Fold this protein.
Amino acid sequence: MAVDKKQRDRYAVGTVLVLLVVVITANLVAELRFWRLDLTAEQRYSLSAPFHNILNRLEDPLKITYYSSEVVPAQFEFGKRAMLDKLREIETAAGGKILLEIKDPTKDTSLREKLHKESELFEVTVQSVERDQRVRTTFYSGFHLLYQEKDAVPLQRVFDPDELEYLLGSRILTLTLKEKPLIAIHIPKSRRKQSPNPMLQNQGSFEWFAEAPFLDEKFEKKVIEFAPGGGIPANTKLLICVRPKDLSEQGQCEVAKFLAQGGRALFLASPWEIDFDFRKVTPLRSGLEDYFKDLGVAWVSALVLDESSVALPGTKIERGSVKPHPVYVKIQPQGLSQENPVTRFLPGLAMPYTSAFILDEDKAKAAGLDIEVLARTSKRTWTVPLPAFLDLVASMEKPTRFDNPRPVLVQLQGQFPCAWEGKPEPGWPDETGKPKPLPSHAKPLVLNKLPGTVFLYSCPESFHQFFLETNDPMVQQQFVGNGHLLLNVVETAALGDDLLAMRTKTNPTRAIHKFEGEGEDRKRNLIKAGMIALIPGFVVLFALCYWWWRRGTQMDYEREFSTTIGPSSFTPERSE
């Protein structure tokens, strides 16, 4: 039955009013509780599970003050909106454990002065073009985190919302720690001296490990010696051994005991040491070679070279530029494991004068351990006998046949053995290096066995002070991945996997791998054309079909209306 026009209008007005009420109510609810639906495959716009784990560590409310100008340059506007959305999502996920406050310092003179006095980094000045004129714009972007009775933690110049999880998560983790995890560091004894080469004066050591300021915020560091009165502290979360040398039997026992009880360790070791003053190479034994060989890992006693290399100072100069030298091995991203968060998304590794590993997976399996290769050289790798001196100016002849990729960074996980279990510990040697006789009342070693983790890296020189603390921008660029690797290992070993998982989170580009190669250009172009034109074309076609159907329906309705109730466009006009 047809409906008259007045009733139709009442239906339309009622529908509009209901929609307005629904929209207004939805916005009011959204103001009270932030929520959004993330349909991306990698959950790009959702908080990660590791971040939720860190939020659960909060015992009391954490106050986050976000300093943001109401008016920001156009290039920062999208980032500001995304930052606010992310903060509201974090506030909702915390379930009342996070109190969010947003302040605009540009409207508060006293707040501006307070922030400026604390740090000038809260204030950002950029140049932009407005109405064909270059103008300078100043705005604010930063945070203060206040938890319990602790000092406020500042975060300045935060623009990327994708970095917010890690930045906040790392600070929350630090604020909620009952005590800082202890990192025990064993480094070679200092042999600093004035070098005849000005570039090497007072360099050539690993002492920066003990001084590294980037570790002070989250960790407690302690330099240890494998000597009487030394050893590994009982509460050690991570052991870092840099080029260990001639460990005594008690030193070996300390390492095995630590690993057998669930310890985590990073060993930077190779079968030699290098004098940077004279390029002298001296063979070196750590004392742990037999222990790791029984676990399926042995060092290659030869210098590993690779066509994938970098150019560093001291190498051969050709045509006015430094030539890449195969002794400076460059591990490319494709040579890094993308499954393990320790090496995922690293830009690469620079490994000067490196050795490599020979792996025996059957031995490892028999010992109850799993071996995972985290980094390997390229397919164009070869080895040369260890020279007494390194001549980087001389050319290195390439072989007629290359080796397979060689592992240079491996991870061992599982229950590590300890040969001294159930026996008395051997004890530290005397001043002459001779073992002391065991006392008659020596007790057998009892272990609380737990699975442990070891990272073995075949190139200590990757973390040499000469390379990491140089002012040469070319060297800094090549070694940036090495610093990230060290931080990844330290964080995952001493703080767990949550923080590292957030830092290595990324938004991958999903390429169409099925049509790779030059011969598939036509198919790729067809897919691109379809995505650009075909989908919008279907939308337009659907709209036309819907319009045609609505037009037919309206005409049928008017025909019925003209024959039942009254005049319509189908009723002939009457002439007066």
